[in-house]
From TrEMBL, chains A, B:
A biological-process GO annotation: DNA repair
Database matches in PANTHER family: RECOMBINATION PROTEIN RECR
Gene giving rise to this polypeptide: recR
Keywords linked to the UniProt accession: DNA damage, DNA recombination, DNA repair, Metal-binding, Zinc, Zinc-finger
Protein name: Recombination protein RecR
GO MF annotation list: DNA binding; zinc ion binding
Family the entry assigns: Belongs to the RecR family.
Organism: Pseudogemmobacter humi
Domain called Toprim: residue spans: 83-178
Species lineage: Bacteria, Pseudomonadati, Pseudomonadota, Alphaproteobacteria, Rhodobacterales
Job of this protein: May play a role in DNA repair. It seems to be involved in an RecBC-independent recombinational process of DNA repair. It may act with RecF and RecO.
Cited SMART domains: TOPRIM (SM00493)
Pfam families: RecR_C, RecR_HhH, RecR_ZnF, Toprim_4
Length: 201, 201
């Protein structure tokens, strides 16, 4: 069974769309059909925007964020704090922090965690580059916002060691009860961490 | 809150993706992030396929199917029965019939149902064109595969009337119990139709 009736171009488009996360063969077909019916208003602008981004997207040379400019908008923004760097595993984490609007400094995107298996060493994660930035830019604080997984925490420890000789203070995200979280549904590890890190009110 | 952090090109792409059926802002963001990380393997081929289809897609002049060729692959296919036309409301219906592989003739895609409100009259649905085809091509049977809705059935009656002067036999899809359907869950209308159209075994 082909994706669409026998038209090679439309078939190929549906198969490519079906590879996107959140879309399967059925929803890809539906999306392509909708685009086909609204070629001028939807498909042509989308194709153009996508080609433009595919052509121009690159990893920011400073922080590793992905953007369509040589230096990403965050690194370019003069309004942002220049003495704080938040280290994240992935661009998705950077986006999440930006959506929350809780951090106004700059970033370092690792692009993964240390993993001999995946061939990801300190160089691949740009840790020497991060260390140079910390020294050259006179960074006051490096916040390690890595995932609370074994890999994330191992990498956090490695980075903390690598930056131990610098002036920067190293910090990490607090662990505890999520806002709106119910104790009843929390795992034991989180409950324990929240209890150990309890604070006076 | 912007879709992505401050990059105008990526923001625009996420917003366009979010308009596709089955994708919302969150899943569009996730899809674009995945494309950004796999620009060469996923994003560039997808953008190119989409641009190609956007450029070449057109309504088949014979049947109204959408394809990337002047005449659609179904109308071009010499292996298909030339004396049967199946009339459907929408390209989606044509695709569904093709996936099922149960019809080997050709199609006429109306692109809607008769609707004064939407400005859809017989001309917009190509009904005079269908009538000419029936005469010119010596069509033996026209199968009206319209939706079992009031609008679909009204349009089916109109088409049956319009083709009454031709040689073609006009038929419509059977109504009854869906394959695998449980009587307990069927609506009264379908049950009634299935009972009236009962057949000896």
């Amino acid at each position: 069974m082909g994706a669409a009736p026998e038209d090679a171009g439309i078939d190929a488009l549906i198969e490519l769309m079906a590879r996107l996360p959140g879309l399967g063969p059925r929803s890809a077909r539906r999306a392509v059909l909708m685009m086909l019916k609204r070629r001028g208003q939807v498909m042509a602008p989308l194709a153009q925007a996508m080609a433009q981004v595919a052509l121009n997207a690159r990893d920011c040379q400073i922080c590793g964020n992905i953007s369509t400019t040589e230096i990403c908008p965050i690194c370019q923004d003069p309004a942002r704090a220049t003495r704080e760097i938040c280290v994240v595993e992935d661009v998705a984490d950077l986006w999440a922090l930006e959506r929350a609007g809780v951090f106004r400094g700059r970033y370092h995107v690792l692009g993964g965690t240390l993993s001999a298996l995946d061939g990801l060493g300190p160089d691949e994660l740009g840790i020497p580059r991060l260390a140079r930035r910390v020294t050259d830019e006179g960074i006051a604080e490096v916040i390690l916002a890595l995932n609370a997984t074994v890999d994330g925490q191992t990498t956090a420890h490695y980075i903390a060691d690598a930056l131990a000789g610098t002036e920067a203070q190293i910090s990490t995200l607090a662990q505890g009860v999520p806002v709106g979280g119910e104790l009843d549904y929390l795992d034991d590890g989180t409950l324990g961490a929240a209890l150990r890190a309890r604070r006076r009110i």
